Amino acid sequence: MEDSYSVDFIKYLINLYMENINYPAVLFLMTLESTFIPVPSELVVPPAAWKAAQGDLNIFLVVLFSTIGCVLGALINYFLAKTLGRKIIYSLVDTKIAHMMFINRHSMEKSEKFFIKYGKSSTFIGRLVPGVRHLISIPAGISLMNLRDFILYTFIGSAIWNGILAALGYFLYTQQELLKQYYRDITIAVLILFVVFLIYLVTKIFNNKNNSPEDEGAL
User: Fold this and answer.
1) What's the domain range around 45?
2) Which of 193, 74, 80 lies closest to 124, judged by CA?
């Protein structure tokens, strides 16, 4: 019964988003996506591109507004990190609130190591890497990366990622006959992915709760 309510609620949210999707909504959600709030870009851009394929939106403006949103969200992280500094940032990622947003010391260290390895270009490459994309702006802020370079690399990387997602959503709309033909297989695949995602979330929450304090000061 609870599963049925969960599915109905998810359908409700999807329908609500699809009915009210516009450029400000894309901008807002993608701004959140690039901060600490876990809003998957895969659930924002493709549906907007789907609407663009119907003629309700412009595909290029979808990519533009989603990319601007990414830059705005990244700037929030950048200035927070620049203002607070590394010590305070790492104390914050150990809090329960951060763990609720699926941010922990391991993910933060992963992003910082990525930035150290690739330098300022990591803010471009990192936008294409899951698990790093929304946190890479933090080590950039901590290291006081040049703001102009940060915006440029973030914009380009985000535009490429959003362009890929938009192309996917647009393609799915134009291939509706193919979707109907394989509807059952696609539905099963989506359900499997959803279950896997739920297992992933539960695992992350469990690992965060059992996160050992002895990892502190690893870097």
Assistant:
1) 21-215
2) 74
Do the Cβ atoms of 65 and 26 come closer than 8 Å? yes
Taking only the tens place, the pLDDT of each residue in 121-156 is 778 887 877 767 778 888 888 888 999 999 999 999
d(CA 187, CA 179): 10
Positions of the chain with pLDDT under 70: 1-11, 13-14, 38, 99-102, 131, 174-191, 193-198, 200-219
CA distance 135 to 38: 11
Q: Judge whether 6 lies within some domain.
A: no
Distance in angstroms (rounded) separating the CA atoms of residues 171 and 25: 22
* pLDDT for the residue numbered 122: 78
* Structural domain includes residue 37: yes
* 73: exposed, middle or buried (Cβ count in 10 Å: 0-12, 13-18, 19+): buried
End-to-end CA distance of the chain: 47
- In total, how many domains does the chain have? 1
- Residue 150 belongs to a domain: yes
With respect to residue 9, please indicate whether it lies within any of the assigned structural domains: no
**CB burial of residue 147 (10 Å; 0-12, 13-18, 19+):** middle
Q: What is the largest CA-CA distance in the chain?
A: 55
